[in-house]
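User: I'm putting together notes for a lab meeting next week and I want to include a structural view of one of the chains we've been expressing. I don't have a solved structure, so I'd like a prediction I can at least talk through. The sequence is below, exactly as it appears in our construct file.
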Amino acid sequence: MATVAHRLPYGALTKAILTTLAAGSLVLAVATLPGLALALRPFLPRRRHHSTAVRQATYRLAKQRLVKLQQRGRRTTVALTETGKQRALRYRVANLAIKKPKQWDGRWRIVIFDIPEERKAVREALRAKFRSLEFYQLQRSVFITPYACREVIEFLKSYFHIDRYVHYGELTAIDCDRFLREQFEV
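Assistant: Thanks for the context. Below is the predicted structure for the 186-residue chain, given as structure tokens.
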């Protein structure tokens, strides 16, 4: 008989455990895995998750030194290691999205940056992320979107450690308004 662990994509369960721990929303107890499987349900694809699969994934993460298991009485708690925190942050960056409201509020959000040459890799990663978030590139280091994104920008600034190089603003008018409206269909 095949267990759920064989049918569940390894990456989905791993990501769910790491991002849940990173969110700090709950302390995961391996000894009470039926409860853990229920706690992770909102973060996983719509499948039934057997506590054995969750336990196995947690032990795999411990072997990879992404989590640390600590015995506390009859319970085993799980905590992220520094390496685990970094991996969880990468998952969060990869899954960033900007919500598109049904009706546009008429404001443009603009991001301007001037990242030094010695941080070129970060600059290119930031550009790539803006493109994946469907920003429009007005100039080499100027991106614009009609959607609220301040929290996403603040997170990216913090993640890449580029607070002093990146600036965010909101505009009610811009000379290329008609062109941008066509680009974003707003």
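A couple of points you could mention at the meeting. The domain at 108-184 is CATH 3.30.70.240 (Alpha-Beta Plaits). Confidence is low (pLDDT under 50) at residues 1-8, 25-34.

User: Perfect, that's what I needed.
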